[in-house]
Amino acid sequence: MSRTQRKQGAACALGYAIRTLVVSQHEAVRQQLVAYLSRSPRLTVSGAAFDAVRIIEAQPDVLVLDLSRLGLTDLRAAIEAAGGVGARLIALASLRDPRAEELVLHAGGRYQLKAAGANGLAEQILEMRAEPAMPPPMGPCQPAAVS
Which residues contact 20 (CB under 8 A, 6 or more apart)? Predict the structure, then answer.
């Protein structure tokens, strides 16, 4: 039995089969996140992508989205795509961006600074399994004005 088959068997036995998609425009970040998350027997990394286009194809339960180099338009598109497939969202940011954070939180996602490290990311994904999925978008997502 291969390592992948053992991992999938363990995930099913525990009642977990959380499909996770990692999206980052940085190849090294994608590779590191996939390697880290793949170590958890309770998660299945269903893919890694350069942009959010794969969300609909991959049908993930949880989307881990690196916000580096993403503008608000790209973030809105990712939120809409994630909501369309019922995926939960964890957004990773290098620096705090109040507008991006508000969009993510308004959509029912989680916003985490990369400085917190990858430790705990798998646990956050597992916690999100018990939370309701993001609702399908009702229209354009607009942040409130920041004073």
Answer: 37, 43, 44, 45, 46, 60, 61, 62, 63, 64, 125
pTM: 0.77
pLDDT in tens, 72-129: 999 999 999 999 999 999 999 999 999 999 999 999 999 998 877 776 788 888 888 7
129: nearest Cα among 12, 11, 17, 7: 17
* 28, 61 Cβ separation under 8 angstroms: no
Separation in Å, CA 4 to CA 40, 43, 70: 11, 11, 32
The CB density around residue 136, as the number of other CB atoms within 10 Å, is 11
Residue spans per domain, the chain: 3-128
Q: Report phi then psi at 45, rounded to 5.
A: -80, 110
Report the C-alpha dihedral over residues 68, 21, 130, 17, rounded to 10 degrees: -160
Q: What is the pLDDT of residues 57-82, one digit of tens each?
A: 889 999 999 998 888 999 999 999 99
Tell the CATH topology of 3-128.
Rossmann fold (3.40.50)
